[in-house]
């Protein structure tokens, strides 16, 4: 081992390069995809919705809206996981009324974002489906 080599010490200081920051951020997303069933479900729904938009030949602005709401839902899921892990780390799964408030608020963020996504999806898809069925 060379003098400058560091032993395998877990990193707790700041990242020293863009590559290091990127690597840790990508690992965070990978962790969320691996461990969060809700996030995997949201990704699957987003892919199906975008495929439907493609086959319905929806305009580019509709795609942008659908991509925007999809990423907002992904973000909300990740923030929800952040809140859950911080609560679990600090409470060690002991019951605290304030921990419940934090987790419920965090779940509320996901619910509100999902509601927004459903509204945008309905505004985009209902007229497109009516047109497809010659009902408008
Ligand atoms: N330490 C705690 N103290 C008090 N209440 C808690 C605590 N941990 C969880 N809860 C309550 O139990 C619920 C479920 O907890 P859990 O950790 O499974 O959150 P959840 O994982 O939010 O659910 P989801 O996976 O649907 O996002 C929370 O919404 C909260 O109301």
UniProtKB/TrEMBL annotation:
- Topology of this chain in the membrane: Multi-pass membrane protein
From the record, give the transmembrane residue ranges: 39-57, 63-87, 108-130
Output one GO MF annotation: kinase activity
**Which InterPro entries does the UniProt entry name for this protein?**
DAGK, DAGK_sf, UDPK
Q: Name one Pfam family in it.
A: DAGK_prokar
Question: In which family does this protein belong, per the annotation?
Answer: Belongs to the bacterial diacylglycerol kinase family.
Q: What's this protein's name?
A: Diacylglycerol kinase family protein
| Source species taxonomy | Bacteria, Bacillati, Bacillota, Bacilli, Lactobacillales
